[in-house]
Amino acid sequence: MSRKRYAVLGLGQFGRSLAEELCEAGCEVLAVDRNPKLVENIRDRVTSAAVADVKDPEALAELVNDTFDGAIVAMGDSLESCILATLQLKELGVPMIYAEASDSQRAEVLTRIGANKVISPERDYGRRLARGLAGHDLIDFVPLTIGYGVCEIVAPDWCVGKSLAELNLRHDKKLAVIAIRDLKGRVQVVPGADTVIAAEDQLTIVGQDTDLADFR
User: Fold this and answer.
1) In this structure, what are the phi and psi dihedrals at residue 134, rounded to the nearest 5 degrees?
2) CA geometry: angle at 214 spanning 211 and 216, to 5°?
3) Which of 184, 186, 180 is nearest to 203 (CA)?
């Protein structure tokens, strides 16, 4: 299987850590920024790195093309740069474009011009932290898109001793249990309907935010 290829445009704190994590996960990563110092600092941590102004269509076209699996526009502080880079990536045929936005208005603009997914690191982390602080049973929460997410939660008492078929979460609450981790750390991925929930099991559930809150 070929390694996935990603371009990370913008090497601020978010872009740098994303590029490094992708590379450590086995992806081929091209890191780009107009600041030579930032590029030099990451050169040994990614597959390749280049100094370029992504607002320049010709410069970007020399680096990125439709053979990449995706590109991340990590310049949330500059809406102009994000817009121009996103538009150019669409023209170059990059199949998946992820764009960083610092607020909801910028997110709306980037979505309208073609970003496949808009990322708001500070907002998303804030949501995850707030949900964790608000409920001791919630281990983690990851937003998927507006109104939907994946949460990891300690099984509520009313679930213990019941099978997934008895709980019937898909029908009653439009939720899906996609993994269960027991006290010994063993994980069942996509557990069957006959799986019985035990005390202290950690459930990974996907669904609408309101349904997830009701489940808790």
Assistant:
1) -75, -20
2) 115
3) 180
